[in-house]
Amino acid sequence: MLKIENLHASVEGKEILKGINLEVKPGEVHAIMGPNGSGKSTLASVLAGREEYEITDGSVSYLNEDLLELDPEERAHKGVFLAFQYPVEIPGVSTTNFLKTAVNQVREARGLKALDAVSFLKEMKEKMKIVDIDQALLSRSLNEGFSGGEKKRNEIFQMAMLEPKLSILDETDSGLDIDALKIVADGVNKLKSAETASIVVTHYQRLLDYIVPDFVHVLYNGKIVKSGDKSLALELEEKGYDWIKEEAPAV
Ligand code: ADP
Ligand code: MG
Ligand code: MG
Fold first, then answer.
1. Domains: count for the chain
2. In terms of Cα–Cα distance, which of 210, 142, 213 is closest to 176?
3. Which domain holds residue 36?
4. Which of 7, 8, 11, 171 gets mutated to test ligand 1 (max ligand atoms within 8 A of its CB)?
5. Which ligand is located closest to the Cα atom of residue 33?
6. ipTM exceeding 0.90?
7. Which residues line ligand 1 (CB under 6 A)?
8. Alpha helices of the chain — where are they, by DSSP H?
9. Residue 97 Cα, ligand 2 centroid: separation in angstroms?
10. Which of 17, 41, 47, 170 has most ligand 1 atoms within 8 Å of its beta carbon, as the pocket-test mutant?
11. What is the pLDDT of residues 35-77, one digit of tens each?
12. What is the CATH number of the domain that holds 94?
């Protein structure tokens, strides 16, 4: 599904990603962990196609296409979902209306008929049950005045509605309480399927008490310095990141 090879990326002339290699297959959940400032959010942003990052070397292929050649909108249409670290607020636009447009754009890109109001509502009702989101939240302006937990729930609801093939969730390093983490984890678990994959970026070991990743990778100083299964996350919980820093090759 996704193959990242020797990816180097810079921002404002400073190299942040220094040769990332990662392969993600359908059905897999990958956790990317690592100390603050390692480049986790940069990696997520590069995959989403945010413009301020310059790719200086390497390649990313997604479903056998060059992902880096696609603009962010095309990526979304082809099934890449990035839950932004700080979701945007859109005053005056309800979550429902925002999603209706987004869902129909994705459907159009996939050669499917647009959903009419009735089918869209039916689809919403089904997904609301899965994500356990309240109708009232969906009628409010997108993200405006949402609590951290509400933003998270809304983000996961968007993911459920858009039915992405590859989801990239970048979790903030602070400000998320345990309930918000559970919402994210629960959503990822429920939406997991044999055809879809997720990359969950997190500073927190705690999130991985609720999501069971198939692979855990530690990003440090712009490189993946260690990969393993969920036991690596437990080891990090116990020992912190200092031993990783000591073991990491100098770059
Ligand atoms: P993490 O998510 O692992 O905490 P980031 O990817 O946010 O790490 O940041 C990695 C490094 O890149 C940091 O030193 C950060 O200051 C720098 N960086 C990231 N984005 C930008 C940007 N838009 N402009 C300048 N520096 C940036
Ligand atoms: Mg950070
Ligand atoms: Mg980050």
1. 1
2. 210
3. 2-247
4. 11
5. 1
6. yes
7. 11-12, 16, 34, 36-42, 52
8. 40-48, 72-77, 95-109, 117-131, 135-139, 148-162, 178-191, 230-239, 242-247
9. 32
10. 41
11. 889 999 999 999 988 888 999 999 999 999 999 999 888 898 8
12. 3.40.50.300
